[in-house]
Amino acid sequence: MSKPMERPDIECPEPSGCPAPTGESGDPPADPFADRTRLTDPRALRAYAHPTRMALVGLLRNEGPLTATRAAALTGESVASCSYHLRMLAKYDLVQQAEGGRGREKPWRATTQFTDWPSHSDDPAVVDASAALNIAVAENYYAKMTRALERRHTLPRAWQEAEQFGDVSLYLTADELTELDDRVTELLAPYLSRQSDPASRPADARPVSYLRVAFVRHGGTTDAVSPDPGECSSPGPGEAGRPGSREVFPPESREVGSTGSGESAS
Fold it and tell me: How far apart are CA 142 and CA 131, in angstroms?
């Protein structure tokens, strides 16, 4: 897997307090992740920390409006289960009913393309609920990435060499990490419109999940003795010396089933 390195199903950082990059006119560029739902109620955070609900949101964002019956066929859940979870998601404005159909045959659609929630709060209830959701999303990422790796051998060689899986340790200040995230956002921005505009996708484009994960390594025996090795898969032909990167797949979030749900704490 060359140059090692799904939201949603990724996914959707909120603008930071750092100076925003400017466009050619000198004005701040439009936020490419502006179409997002912000969860701040602990009840909403805990309600969303459910694999089936994240999967349903990811499907609706990637596939468009779906009925509970169709969602059940794609997720492997029962129609009754999908109907229940869709109603719970609607309670917190993550999905809503679309036009047409009746009963379980009435389609549902995602209200936005991305979801985010607080990375910091003075409210202990929000802190606990956000932590639970972060862990649920991380477990979802792991499950999807594992499935992608198990099926990787079925991809054409070009895609196998293009996928990314690896890590690197960096010494950064908080401001530098924020700036790095802003720069990555700028690189991703030109491709985001393809999510909602199929006509803009190249003929050979495929849904790809691109994970964005960066965290401070806390002190402890494990980190002190075994620092991140900076691992990456073997480079493909002509790729010697290319640094490893970090990610793989399609929201996930920010995926699910294989659809990204577009998630992020910010």
Answer: 16
Q: What is the pLDDT of residue 157?
A: 95
- Tens digits of per-residue pLDDT, 42-60? 999 999 999 999 999 999 9
Question: For the segment 230-253, what is each residue's pLDDT rounded down to a tens digit?
Answer: 555 543 433 333 333 332 223 333
Q: What residue type is 45 in one-letter code?
A: L
Give CA–CA dist 221/53, Å, rounded. 37
For residue 265, the SS3 value is: strand
d(CA 107, CA 262): 21
| SS3 (DSSP) at 73 | helix
Query: Using an 8 Å Cβ cutoff, are 233 and 243 in contact?
Result: no
Q: How many CB atoms lie within 10 A of CB 6?
A: 33
Greatest CA separation for the chain: 60
Pairing of strands 95-97, 108-110: antiparallel
The rounded distance, in Å, linking the Cα atoms of 106 and 123 is: 38
